Amino acid sequence: MRVYLGTIGCRLNYSEMERVARDLAGRGHYIVSSPAEADVCVLNTCAVTTTAEAKSRSLVRSTARANPRARLVVTGCYATLAPEVVETLPQVHLVVNNYVKEQLADVLHAWADEFPPTQASDAQHPLIESTRTRAFVKVQDGCHNRCTFCIVTILRGEERSRPLDTVIQEINDWVAEGYREVVLTGVHLGSYGRDLGTDLSTLVRAILQRTQLPRLRLSSLEPWDIAPTFFDLWKESDGRLCPHLHLPLQSGCDATLRRMARRYTAQEYARLVATARERVPGLTITTDVIVGFPGETDIEFQQSLHFVESMEFAHIHVFPYSRRPGTAAARMKAQIPESVKRERSAAMREVDARCGHAVRQRQIGSIRPVLWERAEQETTRTGWLVWSGLTDNYLRVQALVPESVNLRNRITPVRLTRLDGNVLWGEIIHEPDLLHILPDHSRAGSR
Ligand code: SF4
Question: What pTM was estimated for this model as a whole?
Answer without folding.
Answer: 0.92
